[in-house]
Design brief:
The structure holds 2 protein chains of 2 kinds. Chain A is mainly α. Chain A has 2 domains: 1-37, no CATH class; 49-284, MetI-like fold (Orthogonal Bundle), CATH 1.10.3720.10. Helices cover 75% and strands 0% of the residues of chain A. Chain A has helices at residues 8-31, 50-57, 59-92, 97-109, 112-122, 128-133, 145-170, 174-182, 187-198, 200-216, 218-225, 236-245, 249-284. In chain A, α3 (59-92) packs parallel to α7, α3 (59-92) crosses α10 (200-216) and α4 (97-109) crosses α7 (145-170). The longest helix of chain A has 36 residues, at 249-284. The radius of gyration of chain A is 23 Å and the shape is globular. The two termini of chain A are 22 Å apart. Chain B is an all-alpha fold. Chain B has 2 domains: 2-64, no CATH class; 78-237 and 247-271, Orthogonal Bundle (MetI-like fold), CATH 1.10.3720.10. In chain B, α1 packs across α14. The longest helix of chain B has 33 residues, at 73-105. Classes of the chains: A mainly alpha, B mainly alpha.
Chain lengths: 285, 279
């Protein structure tokens, strides 16, 4: 963008945000890195990477890491695929399409506490699901606990992705489909070659939002199961929370930095893929 | 051919109607059970098997009378929520739109790296960013105060992410033309850019509202004084003796969020969209 030299005002605007962001997030976050390399706050003895190796041997850290990984690996793709499927169908409906997308969006707005009680009654040992289907499982205290949480995650978040996909579908020029039809393309070909290709930017947005929201579902998990849940529901945030409240900053910061490394890698991968794919997309058009 | 198509669309509608009903069932049951008397609730919820009937057998407004009229702590907690959420929303709108504008018009080395750091922090779970927030609140002496929640909320990177995405697809020629006409940055931002990303601003406001209406974790860490706690925190500590009141307060509390969502749904659709070819 060619611009005038006088950029004092936007520079100030950026500095305002950077200053607040640094003060409240970045600087204290970097300062806390010190904790990860010392024995404890009293001896202040430098122990190198020992806190990290101890974390990887800690049963609960590894359990949280494993469950968080499963949650994301199952929950995020399901969230994206189901909301895409729903968006494709809703987009073709002649009537009520607005109402449907609105209804699916509602769970997003419901405060976690409002429905937490409903979920715990639904999946309790003497709860409704067991009465309807006769399972007799205490869901949140069983190996299926994590999958029930994924179900709640999907219930809460499909609507938002659905809205993003419907918006993305609306951006695809109809002429593309008309041309494809003239050339005799089948409906499936149009889906693969036009719809999915031009939804690429939306895929990235839904991926990032699903990632953010997969952490946010911890509110529900925490209200329903508390800070010491069944092993299958124990996620990384339990570990971070519990070490934070027990003031075990060495454990906590090393766990946090391990998680941060994963997130940095994830963001780098997503941005790289986005840049490459959007370049390909531009070449197409 | 036409008949099968019609059948398919009828099936589609039926499936979606059933799904939609299942989707709002948690909300509907919470609402209807809030009109249930304490003894009926206790019988349903703490009996041999849990029952959650769709309709109460005896309708009562006793719980609503208690939360709205008899004990003032509920309205006080509602006020606390509003007092926390409002400055966060206004602040983040101002700070994020200014920052997103700067990201759009400025070119400098390290811009994308800076944005990368914003993005990483945005993706960190709340439990992780609470620790830096706590350290700073301690340093500034604002622990046990709403400011400890409000200030980090204002500078959260999420708004910059949403608004920058929107400004990126804005036609550059608009800004260039305004500059040629001699308009300054503040004028360009307020007269051209902000009106163009109006729905993005609205979407950000709606999402921030929803997030802070559901404020729990930060309140656990920062707010010990019970008179200052937001309602969402109270509701998250389910009180078995007061099931009726909890249901009523939950139902009452969900309404503003629903109104904002239904009113703002169009903005969510248009506001986080990626291209601006619908201007």
């Amino acid at each position: 963008m060619k611009l005038k030299k006088n950029n004092a005002i936007p520079v100030f605007m950026l500095l305002l945000s950077v200053a607040g962001f640094s003060l409240f997030f970045l600087i204290p976050f970097l300062m806390s890195l010190g904790h990860a390399f010392i024995e404890n706050p009293f001896t202040l003895r430098f122990v190198g990477l020992r806190n990290f190796t101890v974390s990887f041997q800690n049963k609960y850290f590894m359990l949280g890491l494993k469950n968080t990984a499963i949650f994301m690996a199952v929950g995020i793709p399901l969230n994206i695929m189901l909301s895409l499927a729903a968006a494709l169908i809703i987009n073709r409906l002649k009537f009520f399409s607005n109402i449907f997308s609105l209804v699916f969006l509602i769970p997003l707005a419901i405060p976690s506490a409002t429905t937490a009680f409903f979920w715990s009654n639904l999946f309790a040992k003497n709860g409704l699901v067991n009465q309807w289907f006769g399972f007799g499982v205490d869901w949140f205290n069983s190996d299926y606990g994590l999958y029930v949480m994924i179900l709640i995650f999907l219930w809460k978040n499909i609507g938002f992705n659905l809205v993003l996909f419907i918006s993305g579908l609306g951006d695809i020029p109809l002429e593309y489909y008309e041309v494809a039809r003239v050339y005799g393309a089948s409906r499936f070909q149009m889906l693969c070659r036009i719809t999915l290709v031009y939804l690429t930017p939306t895929f990235f947005l839904t991926l990032i939002m699903s990632f953010v929201n997969s952490f946010r579902i911890f509110k529900e998990i925490y209200i329903i199961t508390g800070d010491t849940p069944h092993e299958s529901v124990y996620v990384l945030q339990h570990y971070v929370n519990n070490t934070f409240f027990s003031l075990n900053y060495q454990r906590m910061t090393s766990a946090v930095y391990i998680l941060t490394v994963f997130i940095v890698l994830f963001v780098a991968l997503v941005l790289k893929a986005e840049i490459r794919l959007s370049r390909d997309l531009r070449r197409l058009t | 051919m036409r008949a099968t198509r019609k059948a398919a669309s009828v099936i589609c509608y039926l499936v979606f109607a059933a799904l939609a009903a299942a989707y709002i069932l948690p909300l509907v049951i919470t609402l209807t059970n809030s009109f249930m008397g304490q003894s009926e609730l206790a019988h349903n919820l703490f009996g041999y098997v849990i029952r959650m009937p769709l309709l109460p057998s005896d309708v009562t407004l006793a719980q609503y009378r208690q939360i709205l009229i008899e004990s003032p702590i509920y309205l006080n907690m509602l006020w606390n929520t509003i007092a926390i959420a409002t400055p966060v929303i206004l602040g983040t709108l101002i700070v994020s739109s200014a920052a997103a504008y700067a990201f759009t018009v400025l070119t400098f080395k390290g811009k994308e790296t800076l944005f990368f750091i914003y993005l990483v922090v945005m993706l960190l779970p709340l439990q992780v960013t609470l620790m830096p927030n706590y350290i700073v609140a301690d340093f500034l002496g604002i622990r046990d105060s709403w400011l400890a929640i409000i200030l980090p909320g204002i500078f959260s990177p999420f708004g910059v992410f949403i608004l920058r995405r929107q400004m990126k697809v804005m036609p550059v020629s608009y800004i260039e033309a305004a500059q040629i006409d001699g308009a300054g940055h503040l004028r360009i931002l307020s007269r051209i850019v902000l009106p163009l990303v109006k729905s993005g601003l609205a979407a950000l406001a709606v999402l921030t509202f929803i997030e802070y209406w559901n404020l729990i974790d930060q309140a656990i860490v920062f707010i010990e004084d019970i008179d200052k706690q937001p309602m969402s925190l109270f509701l998250s500590r389910i009180n078995q003796k007061q099931m009726g009141v909890t249901f009523a307060a939950s139902s009452f509390y969900v309404f503003p969020a629903l109104v904002v969502l239904l009113y703002g749904a169009d903005y969510l659709r248009d506001g986080i969209r990626l291209s601006s070819n619908k201007t």
